Fold this sequence. Notes:
By secondary structure, the protein is of the alpha/beta class. It has 13 helices and eight strands.
Amino acid sequence: MIIDSHAHLVAPNSFYAYRANLEASGGYYQGAPGISDDALAEAAASNVSVMDSVGIDLQLISPRPYHQMHSTRPEQLVHWWIEANNDLIARTVELHPDRFAGVAGLPITPGAPVESAFAELDRAINDLGFVGVTVNPDPYEGQPSTLTLGDEYWYPLWGRLVEYGVPALIHSAGCASGRESYSEHFVTEESIAILSMLRKGVFERFPTLNIVVAHGGGSVPYQIGRWQAEALHAGLGGDPNGERFEVGLKRFWFDTVLHNPLSLELLLKTVGPERCLFGTEKPGSGSALNPATGRMFDDLKPVLDSFDFLSEADRAGIYEGNALSIYPRLAARLGANA
C-alpha cells in the first residue's frame, strides 16, 4: 500500500465563501457551511482521480494550512472555522473510507492557553475517528511573541497526544506579516520547531511523543553542519561531550514533501529511510509541470523508486510501514478492513 502521509482537504469553492462570511460577521454570526453532499462528492472524486494518476492508495488529509487563519480575531472565529474543516474532512472520509483518513486541525490561537484546543482535539479523535493532528508552530502567523515548540506552553498538548497515542504533523499556516509568502514561512517555522524542541529537551520529558515535520524538516537537514557544530560549541551554549545533533534529529519523523531529487536524497541519507514517511501534499503548490522530467514536481514515487541506495525494505517502510508504526489508529482501522 502507498500511504501519502501529508495531504490536505480538497473542498468545493463554496466552502471558502463560508470563511468569508465568518470574517465579515466579526464573530456575531456562525451560520453553516452549507456544503451539499453532491458538491463534496465531486471535490473528493477529483482528489481520488489525482491519487489514482500517481499510484497513491490512501491519503491522510488535514485542513489546508494557509487557510486556517489562526491569528484572526475574535478567536471564536478560528474555532468555528477549524471545526468546520474537521467536519468536512470527516464527511470526505465517509465518502471514501478506503482512500482517506482524517488528521485534525487544532484551533490554537494567540494568547490563549493551548488547552483551549483540547475540546476539538478530543472531538476529532473520539467522535470523528481521526488518526492524528496538525500543529501550527506559529499561531501568531508571522507576528511577534510566538513561543517556540520547545516552550512549556506546549507541554500539555504533548502530554495529551502521548495519552492518545497519536502523532502531530508540524505544519505552519498563514503568514500575516506581509514580509514573506506562506511557503517561505512554512520552511522557516518548521526549522525553528526542530531546533527549539531539541534545544529544550522535549523528548527527554515526552520520550514516546511522535512528531512528523513537514516538507522534509524545513532547512535543517540542508544546514545540518551548522547545528552539529553549535551543539558541540561550548561558546555557543553547546556541550563538547553531549549528544550529537544528528542523534537527536532522528527522534523526529520527516515526510518526503521535497520537490527536488537531490534534496530528497540528502534527507534520506541524513536521517535515514527508517525516519521518513511518504508524502506529496498533492494537489498543492508542487502540482506544476517540471520541464526537465515531464512530470509534476510533487510526483515523488518515481523519484523514490529511482534511488538505487534504497532497499526494498527501505521503500516498504517509507511507503507504508513507518506511517503504520506511528499512526496506530490508522493501522487498527486498516487491520479491521483487511
